[in-house]
């Protein structure tokens, strides 16, 4: 049994199919990266998994338990097992970094405030921002805000972390610090599903890479297989193009 099992998942926007039968899996502690051209459905897949966009068909199991996206209780249970970090960090502007990290455990999960704040401080330290707990988002750089957002996503102690292009909105000189944070989390036992255009990073960090195109999985392989020995021409063309672009 895999930690995360996605089977024949389908989703549409206004009747247009965007995910057309996606099947993939992740074992505990794996870093699985989704790559593929713009519009291939990578972000939509993450949105469906976390329950923001309803699937129209297919199944998602976490630790062998099926998620029922139409059921509020199942969704609530899902949100304590899985969390997501977006490209735009979306912090609460009127709250300190510490309060941003502590709020979900208090409001959603009923953790006592003191305990949540102690844990939030430990998480801020983990992302290198132990000294910024009292700062408001507008007093932080984009990279720092994104690291607060990662700490916030970790605050519910998820088993699975979804990362949707978490460096795309950052100034180039701020990308490295966020990638360092993600790198430090990988291998911590948390299962990660990562959408990123940072191909060197994807290549380095992923245990497995899933190539998507037009709402379907084209190919899945280890990082080495996908980047140096892809079986499908579509994958070779995509990977070759992005590597040439980066060079
Ligand atoms: N809110 C929405 N309403 C309607 N169509 C949408 C919406 N979000 C995405 N789409 C469409 O769904 C398809 C898949 O988009 P998605 O953002 O999942 O792709 P992606 O692979 O993540 O692309 P990118 O790398 O550019 O972020 C695209 O054709 C897109 O135009």
Automatic annotation (TrEMBL):
This is Amino acid ABC transporter ATP-binding protein. It holds the Pfam family ABC_tran. It is a peripheral membrane protein. Keywords: Amino-acid transport, ATP-binding, Cell membrane, Membrane, Nucleotide-binding, Transport. Gene3D superfamilies: P-loop containing nucleotide triphosphate hydrolases. PROSITE patterns: ABC_TRANSPORTER_1 (PS00211), ABC_TRANSPORTER_2 (PS50893). Belongs to the ABC transporter superfamily. InterPro entries: AAA+_ATPase, ABC_ATPase_HisP-typ, ABC_transporter-like_ATP-bd, ABC_transporter-like_CS, MetN_ABC_transporter-like, P-loop_NTPase. Residues 4-239 form the ABC transporter domain. It is found in: Cell membrane. The lineage of its organism: Bacteria, Pseudomonadati, Pseudomonadota, Alphaproteobacteria, Sphingomonadales. It comes from the Bacteria. PANTHER family: AMINO ACID IMPORT ATP-BINDING PROTEIN (PTHR43166), GLUTAMATE_ASPARTATE IMPORT ATP-BINDING PROTEIN GLTL (PTHR43166:SF9). GO terms for molecular function: ATP binding. Its main location: membrane.
